[in-house]
Structure formats: structure tokens, C-alpha cells
Amino acid sequence: MQVWDRRNPSFLKWSTSNNTSNNNNKKDLEEGVDDALGYVLEDRLINAEIENNLPNNVKLLCQTQLTGIEEIGGEGGGKARVTYKSTDSSSTSALDVDLLIGADGGNSSVRRLLNIPTSSHSYGQVACCATISTVGGAEYRHGHNTAYQRFLDEGPVAMLPLWDGLYNIVWTMEPDTAKEVKADPDGFIGRLQEAIMKGPESSGPPSVLSAITDGLGLVNMNEFHSPSSSTYFTPPPTPTSLVSPILSFPLSTHAAHNYVKGNCVLIGDAAHGVHPMAGQGLNLGLADVEELVLRVGSSVGGGGKVNDKLGLEIYERKRMRKVMVAQGGIHALREIFRFKGPGDMGGIGRAVGMAGVNMVPGLKEQLKQAAMGL
Ligand SMILES: Cc1cc2nc3c(=O)[nH]c(=O)nc-3n(C[C@H](O)[C@H](O)[C@H](O)COP(=O)(O)OP(=O)(O)OC[C@H]3O[C@@H](n4cnc5c(N)ncnc54)[C@H](O)[C@@H]3O)c2cc1C
User: One Pfam family from the UniProt entry (predicted)?
Assistant: First the structure.
């Protein structure tokens, strides 16, 4: 993965031992190679895999809308009664469950029906998303397995590798810019090339920036180098054509004040949401699942119930703490990359910061582990 900034002469690059091989995302997954910083997975494939592996005793109720959730059977040890109606009928049905898990996304009906207070903040920006094909560049020779992210004035533009030279684009921009971009699909590739096919540029006072780069031993990032070393800046492959519609999503962050209420628990985006710039949204949800499985497993394994109060409390406490740290970190990162300051102090500060990350032993590795959710 390579991250760089429009406004400072530095970059960060993380590699694995597998990075210079001829493998790519799809091949790695097929072969079970587990030597990657992360994977780009399509939502529909994850969902299909889950559906195909559901045990026989799971009953799916599709096209339904939740209409109410209430606790029954008293405090502790009771059940949650869930009422719902089919989207094509007005009659309601009810289910009594030991544990209700709300995994219904950012606009969670479960969270709303439980009246769980939620803090949210709109960034006032949107993410434009599309799939593109590419050609050439270092990736052409070394397999498409590097994710690129360049921070521009309006926000980051990311190129995430799929297979056969295809990349997903996630591009943060102002809503007005997004409108222009969506209205002109033919101009998308040109705009994207302009946005991402450049090394870091120095826009601050040259004397200060060159003093920093010289003093810290940074290389001139505007010269593209061989990708074989993690020391050198790698040019992304050249975007050539748009192969999907351009979609846009409003960007916001939110946090439920409770993840557990009675016999109900929230996981994933139902409980929390983050800016996609750090690629952590789904990771945080998967970590919720892992923790919940652990807690419920140990309650049941110890002769307790699936909705054991203590187990659920531990789930809530542990996950809330970790999610708050991640949300704070991602929010801070966004602010740091947006900050300009007088005389582009922001850019200079980021140059020093990135150089520090590159030079302080272990720091880059720690950031990598955090990004991988380890
Ligand atoms: C532009 C963008 C880029 C992103 N990039 C990344 C990234 O690089 N890495 C990353 O980790 N995360 C990323 N995310 C975040 C990630 O998409 C979310 O965190 C993740 O999808 C949350 O998963 P979830 O299952 O909790 O919720 P969702 O994906 O929202 O799924 C909830 C599901 O519940 C269903 N549902 C809702 N109500 C009902 C109902 N009544 N009955 C039945 N089903 C219902 C919905 O249809 C939906 O399928 C990105 C998000 C955006 C917007």
C-alpha cells in the first residue's frame, strides 16, 4: 500500500514479502495465500458465501420490515419479542428470541426501535465510487496487488486492486464536484489521471521544504522509481477506461451510545460508522462478530445462556473502547490531511510526520498492524 500527499514531498509505503511476486488479489484468495495487508472483497460475494453456508436449521424471512421490539419475561433471562411485517402485506407477525443481533447497517431499524441514542456527524462530502481498468506502470509487471491513496485538497482518492488490471476507485469530494463528475462519465478517466498519476508536489515555500527533505534524507518523489524497493515511490498503473457506473455515497461517522440493550445487541454499522479513508468500516464490524462469538461461546460453554448479561456487557465494553479509538484516529487523520495552515504549515508538518514514521523503528509496523485490525 502506498499513501502520499498532494502537499508534501513525502510518502508512506507498506509491503509484504509477497508484494513483488506475480500474484494478485484474486489468485491469492484462490490459493489461500495469507500474506497480504488486506483484501478487496465484493459485498455480493461475502453475502453469497454466508448464504451458501447457512446451517439447515436457519430460516430466512426475506422482504420484511421490523415494526417493534420489546423485552418480555422480565429483567434478565427474558426474551426479545420482535414484530415484523412482510413488505407486501399489512399483517404483522412476531418472534420471541433469546438474543436479537442488529446487523442491519447504518440506518439500523433495530437501533431505532430500541431507542438507542446515537451521535452522528456528517462530513458534508461524498465518496464517488467506480471500477476502472488500467494499463502499464510497475503493476503491469509485478501483479496488481498494491492499493494507492493520494490525499488531495478535497480529500483522498484511492485505487484499490481487484484483478486483471481492474481497480475500485473511492474518491472523496465535495457534493458539487461529485455532481460534475457524475454528469460527465466520459471525462472521469481524465480527471482521475490528473488526480492520481502524480508524485507528491511541493506547494510550500521551496526553501523550507527542501531543507526538510534534504535534512531528513527524503528522495525526490517526483521521479518515479523501480517498485522493487519499498524505499521508492511507485507510480500507479494508468487508468484507461471506466467499466462501471459512477456511484456516490454521503460520508458521515456515527456511534450508538449503547451496543447492548436487554437481550438485543448491535454489531457492524448498526453500532458504528467511520469515514472510508482508512478502509476500516467492515473490519470493525468483523471484529465485533469475533468478540460477540467469543463472549456468547464462553457463556454457553460455561453452562450459561446465549444472552448472559455479563457476557454481553463485556462485549459492549471491549468493542466500544476499540471502536472509539479507531473513530478518533480516523477522524484525526482526516483533519491532519485537510489542514493547510499559513504558508502551508500543514504540508510541512505532514512531511515531517511521514518522515518520522519512516525513520522511527517499529512505528510503521505498528501502523500496519493497526490498519490490519491486529
Ligand atoms: C464509499 C465507501 C467505501 C468503503 N470502503 C471500505 C473499505 O475499504 N474497507 C472497509 O472495511 N469498509 C469500507 N466501507 C464501510 C463498509 O462498507 C461498511 O462498514 C460495511 O458494509 C458495514 O457492514 P454491515 O454488515 O454492518 O452493514 P451493511 O453493509 O450496511 O449491511 C446491512 C445489511 O442489512 C440489510 N438490512 C437492513 N434492514 C434489513 C431488514 N429489515 N431486513 C433484512 N435485511 C436488512 C441491508 O439490506 C444490508 O444488506 C466503505 C463504505 C463506503 C460508503
Answer: FAD_binding_3
